Sequence to fold (202 residues):
Amino acid sequence: MEEFPSGAVPEPHDDGAPGGTPGTAEPRAAESGAAEPDGAPHDEVDRIVAAWLRVRPDLDLEPLTVFSRISRLARHLDLARRRAFARRDLEIWEFDVLSALRRAGEPYRLSPGALVQQTLVTSGTMTNRIDRLADRGFVERHRSPDDRRGVQVELTTAGLKQVDAAMADLLAVEADVLSALDKDDRPGLAALLRTLATQFEE
Fold:
């Protein structure tokens, strides 16, 4: 599970289009997602793109039609995930660490270095996070059986129950978001997003 940046999340109407938020000053013909006179569904991005076309018809705005929607969806998902984890009294970073341990399988144990690699934070940040999770009774430190100087971090029974419950809540939230798409369309969307993401992972 990827970690989301901490702090306030921008409201979904703050679009990352070039030049700020040119579309927000435009009068809205209908609410986001409502049908326009031609019968096709339109959203705020369509209105932003239309505004740019009026002032810069020389630009190819196709990237904006894709990435502005991805950006806006990411903000909505971040807020939804925070609400889902809040039901279990968890922060997103806590779920990131606990879920990495859960995915490791029994005995749900990883080195701090492995946790750093999986959650993309510094070793100092991870040390602090392990301390805080240990204080909550969700993880324990153990000596590594292969290296007496090494340490392993292990899920406790309480941590296991907490992360399993939070994962179920998260999947329910995300399934609700996906319900706007037909099931037959979802694999194709996942494949397209995988293609875009792979260029950064490589």
Remarks:
- The two ends are 18 Å apart (CA to CA).
- The helical segments are 44-55, 62-86, 92-103, 112-119, 123-135, 157-178, 186-201.
- The longest strand covers residues 139-143.
- Residues 11-86 form one domain.
